[in-house]
Write a structure and sequence with these properties.
The protein has 324 residues and is α/β, with parallel strands linked by helices. The protein has two domains: 2-121 and 275-323, Medium-chain alcohol dehydrogenases, catalytic domain (Quinone Oxidoreductase, Chain A, domain 1), CATH 3.90.180.10; 139-262, Rossmann fold. The chain contains nine helices and 16 strands. It starts with a strand and ends with a strand. The model has no long low-confidence stretch (mean pLDDT 95).
Length: 324
C-alpha cells in the first residue's frame, strides 16, 4: 500500500484528501518508484480547480524524485536501485510510491539530491525550453521575466544571466523584488508599486526587450506586449492570475510585428531523446553553480491542501516540496 493525495471533484484545496492505495507490479515499459521528495507547482492548482479539465477521480502532481524499486519487461535503460526524477506527468506524483512510464524517468547524477531534483525538475525543464528553444537567448539580449521570485522565475533569471542576457524581472512586493535582484536581475521591478511597462522601457532606453517570459497571465499580458521591441517575442506559458484575454492578430502587427507563442513542456520533451537532453542541460547548469536551487518551503505530503492554500495566496517564494 502507498499513501496518495486524490480528489473526486474540482474546487479549492479542501477537495484534496489523503488515501491508502494499492500499488502493484510494473507492467511492460513501466517502473515502480518510491518517492523521496515531490514537487509542488502552480499547474497543480489548475488541475485541482478544473481550469485544466481532467477525468475524475484523479491523483495530482507532475514531478518527483526517488528510487526505482521494480521494472517491467522491456526496460533496459534503467536498473533497480537507480536514483531517478521526472516531470510533466502523468498526474499522480503526490504519492509515496507509484507506477510510472519508465521512458519518463531520467537518472539523477550523484551531485543532485532528491529534494533538489523534486524542487527543480518541472520548473527547470520549463526554464530550459523557454530560454534555449522557445526563444534562444543570446548574449546581450534584453529579456523580461515575470514572477522572477517564483519557482520558474528564480531558475530562469539565473540561467538567463549565465547565457549573457540583460535581465529585467518583476515581482510582487519589495522583499520579492530584492530577492529577484539578488538572483542576478539587472533591473528588479516591484509591479505593485511601479509601472513595469514604463520601467522596462526606461531600462532599455525606450527600445523594449527581445522576449517576455510571462507565467502570470491575465494581469500582465497586455502590458507585456508593450514591453517588447519590434519583432520581439511574447511567450505566455502560465495563467497564475487567470487566462489571458483574446486578441486580434492585427494587434501584434500594430505593436511591432510581434511574435506570440503559448508553449507547453510536453511538446518540448515529446521524445525520450529530447527529455534526456533537456534534463542533462539542467543538471549541468545546476552542478556548475550557475543556477542555485533554493527550497523555501517543505510540507508533509498529508499537508498538501495547506501547501495549495499558501501557494495560491502568494505566501510561498521559490520552490516548494512535499515529503512523503
Amino acid at each position: 500500500m502507498a499513501l496518495a493525495i486524490q480528489f473526486k471533484q474540482v474546487g479549492g484545496p479542501e477537495v484534496l484528501s489523503l488515501a491508502e492505495v494499492a500499488i502493484g507490479e510494473p507492467g511492460p515499459g513501466q517502473a515502480r518508484v518510491r518517492h523521496h521528495a515531490i514537487g509542488l507547482n502552480f499547474i497543480d492548482t489548475y488541475h485541482r480547480s478544473g481550469l485544466y479539465p481532467l477525468s475524475l477521480p484523479s491523483g495530482l502532481g507532475m514531478e518527483a524524485a526517488g528510487v526505482v524499486e521494480a521494472l517491467g519487461a522491456g526496460v533496459d535503460y534503467l536498473s533497480v536501485g537507480d536514483r531517478v526524477a521526472y516531470a510533466g506527468g502523468p498526474l499522480g506524483a503526490y504519492a509515496s510510491v507509484r507506477i510510472m512510464p519508465a521512458d519518463k524517468l531520467v537518472r539523477l547524477p550523484d551531485s543532485i539530491s532528491f529534494e533538489t531534483a523534486a524542487a527543480m525538475m518541472l520548473q527547470g525543464l520549463t526554464a530550459e525550453y523557454l530560454l534555449r528553444r522557445t526563444y534562444a537567448v543570446q548574449p546581450g539580449d534584453a529579456v523580461l521575466i515575470h514572477a522572477a521570485a517564483g519557482g520558474v522565475g528564480q531558475i530562469a533569471v539565473q540561467w538567463a544571466k549565465a547565457l549573457g542576457a540583460f535581465v529585467i524581472g518583476t515581482a510582487g512586493g519589495p522583499d520579492k523584488a530584492a530577492l529577484a535582484g539578488s538572483l542576478g536581475c539587472d533591473v528588479a521591478i516591484d509591479y505593485r508599486s511601479d509601472d513595469f511597462v514604463a520601467a522596462t522601457r526606461a531600462a532599455t532606453q525606450g527600445m523594449g526587450v527581445r522576449v517576455v517570459y510571462d507565467g502570470v497571465g491575465k494581469d500582465t499580458f497586455m502590458g507585456s506586449l508593450d514591453c517588447l521591441a519590434a519583432r520581439g517575442m511574447m511567450v505566455t506559458y502560465g495563467n497564475a492570475s487567470g487566462p489571458v484575454p483574446d486578441i486580434a492578430p492585427l494587434l501584434l502587427s500594430q505593436k511591432g510585428s510581434l511574435f506570440l507563442t503559448r508553449p507547453t513542456l510536453g511538446h518540448y520533451t515529446a521524445t525520450r531523446a529530447e527529455l534526456v537532453a533537456a534534463a542533462e542541460a539542467l543538471f549541468a547548469v545546476v552542478a556548475s553553480g550557475q543556477v542555485r536551487i533554493q527550497i523555501a518551503q517543505r510540507y508533509a505530503l498529508a499537508d498538501a491542501a495547506q501547501a495549495h492554500h499558501e501557494l495560491e495566496a502568494r505566501k510561498t517564494v521559490g520552490s516548494t516540496i512535499l515529503l512523503p
